[in-house]
Write a structure and sequence with these properties.
elongated; 9 helices; alpha+beta
């Protein structure tokens, strides 16, 4: 192995001669260099472009090279005489040039979506040297393309392209040039070169709504939700389409409730991991083929219809357990009466939820979505489509963290979920008692209605009767209907998380959030209602009290 040194910036394109003795390279330093492989040195340098050189295509004899790049111009350069000719100008940076085998056409792709076919024009070689210079110029390192006009005859003419329009144009779809990830971390808003705005669902790989030619900023404000969900994927539109990046360090950051993810048929308290469900949706065909090929071995979770025991049935009829909905709250129960002492009961509830809702393939994505695997986020290992998988692929293709997620359900998450600290105090307008320990820790995902339930449970309040009973047969009002939770003077929606309240209502990242509780304005309990004790101690239900912070 050896290195060829000479370029002063990144090398963007290389072409090797058929006999392997010479090599051409194009660089962001605006030059093209010709290298002798045997001597391991640069034998010629061509200053043709005014910006980065991104693509090269040499003829079969390695006598000339066609080049393009960021300056939107396409040149042909004679490698022996160093004369260059401007063939044509594109309307966007040139990404790739390709000469047809019959040497008659040059196909060009740019950052626009259309592909243009240009005629391979013969360079003029008439007797009028000044006319030739009007199209051609010397590309030797010592030649200057800059004109300093002390005398018009001394200035070098600006090259004029031999062609002004392509012979053939293959139109493409408008390229996406602008995007934003909405704060629900599932939907993305895009704008293309035609000015059309569209709304996409990343977790299902589908277009939700074509909004047409409208204001991007107005649509962004309209479709944004008051939610706070951790970032779990990155995105770019460099290729003119949506490219979603998943990384081990962040893919499993976002845990939300299943109903908030748009999953039907799940209870309000079932939690899901967006990254896990997206991976299982992407590799659904692989899991199915893998399960069928191995006759459904115990470690393989294939897709299929719900089984009798809450699992999934494959084409072979075998049944395997589904992915469990994850209850990450070791000290937070999903029922209002749960306590910290009910860890064993919680495990049993977890198993019951498995039977309730098989969530293995809640997200289903199209099979024609291309996948790219990168090493260390930079080096591409392979490109394939979802339909290309046979089920035989293993760790030699799939990264370990993806394989462990799909096959073993391992996400590499900490045992305790991220938590927020906050103070819980009675509101001045009510006579409800205070807690002995009023600084609490709770998972970020916990909803405000849990806080209301906590207050009712800790204060041993009796919920008033509901008259008449509602359609669900509830005889009493819910805790969140009876107890209001206020943050920064605003009543918090019972369905928002404490993380959302902190970001949108509290809006002070330097201090712990203070939540105040009071009976709802529609409450039937009066201030003289008796309580078990006027000062309630401890915090054993759904939040973790911090010792040393007494009210």
């Amino acid at each position: 192995a050896f290195k060829l040194r000479g370029h002063t910036d990144n090398v963007k394109a290389i072409v090797l001669s058929t006999d392997g003795t010479q090599l051409l390279s194009g660089s962001s330093d605006q030059t093209i260099r010709l290298w002798d492989i045997g001597q391991q040195r640069c034998v010629a340098s061509y200053s043709v472009h005014s910006d980065s050189v991104w693509t090269l295509h040499a003829d079969a004899t390695f006598a000339s090279v066609v080049s393009g790049g960021r300056d939107q111009s396409v040149f042909v350069t004679d490698l022996h005489t160093a004369n260059s000719t401007l063939l044509f100008n594109e309307h966007a940076p040139v990404l790739k040039v390709l000469i047809t085998p019959d040497n008659q056409m040059i196909w060009v792709s740019t950052s626009n979506s259309a592909v243009n076919g240009w005629e391979r024009t013969v360079v003029p070689c008439g007797e009028n040297s000044r006319e030739r210079a009007y199209h051609s110029f010397s590309a030797s390192p010592r030649a200057s393309r800059m004109a300093f006009s002390l005398d018009d005859d001394l200035s070098e003419p600006v090259p004029v392209p031999l062609q002004t329009s392509p012979r053939i144009t293959i139109p493409g779809a408008p390229a996406v040039v602008r995007h934003t990830i909405l704060n629900d971390r599932q939907r993305v808003l895009t704008e293309d070169t035609s000015g059309s705005v569209a709304l996409w669902d990343i977790t299902r790989g589908v277009l939700l709504q074509d909004l047409g030619h409208t204001s991007f900023d107005e649509q962004m404000n309209h479709h944004s939700k008051m939610v706070c969900i951790p970032s779990w994927f990155a995105m770019d539109t460099k290729t003119g389409s949506i490219m979603v990046h998943l990384d081990k360090s962040s893919c499993f950051n976002a845990e939300i409730y299943g109903v908030d993810a748009g999953i039907s048929g799940v209870s309000d308290d079932v939690k899901v991991n967006l990254g896990e469900l997206l991976l299982r949706g992407l590799f659904r065909a692989w899991l199915t083929k893998r399960g069928t090929r191995k006759n459904v071995k115990e470690e393989d979770p294939p897709q299929g219809e719900p089984g009798d025991n809450g699992g999934t049935k494959t084409e072979t009829g075998a049944e395997v357990p589904p992915v469990a909905s994850r209850d990450s709250h070791t000290s937070l129960g999903d029922n209002e009466g749960d306590t910290k002492d009910g860890v064993a009961e919680k495990k049993e509830e977890k198993e019951q939820k498995k039977e309730e809702t098989p969530l293995s393939f809640a997200f289903s994505l199209p099979d024609d979505i291309p996948l790219f695997f990168f090493e260390n986020g930079e080096v591409p290992l392979c490109r394939c489509s979802l339909s290309d998988f046979t089920g035989e692929e293993g760790r030699e293709l799939l990264p370990d963290w993806i394989y462990d997620c799909l096959v073993h359900g391992e996400l590499g998450l900490p045992v305790d979920p991220p938590k927020l600290s906050f103070f819980l105090e009675p509101h001045d307008s009510d006579t409800l008692p205070i807690l002995t320990q009023n600084k609490l820790h709770a998972p970020r995902i916990m909803r405000m209605r849990k806080v209301s339930s906590y207050i009712v449970g800790r204060l041993n309040l009796e919920l008033p009767a509901r008259n008449p009973e509602n359609v669900d047969g509830e005889s009493t009002v819910r805790s969140d209907e009876f107890i209001d939770i206020l943050c920064n003077g605003q009543i918090a929606d019972p369905m928002i998380s404490i993380a959302t309240a902190r970001q949108y209502l509290w809006r002070n990242g330097l201090e712990d959030m203070v939540l105040r509780y009071r009976r709802s304005c529609g409450s039937t309990l009066c201030a003289s209602e008796r309580y078990t004790s006027s000062l309630v101690s401890g915090s054993q239900f759904s939040m973790e009290a911090v010792p040393g912070h007494e009210g």
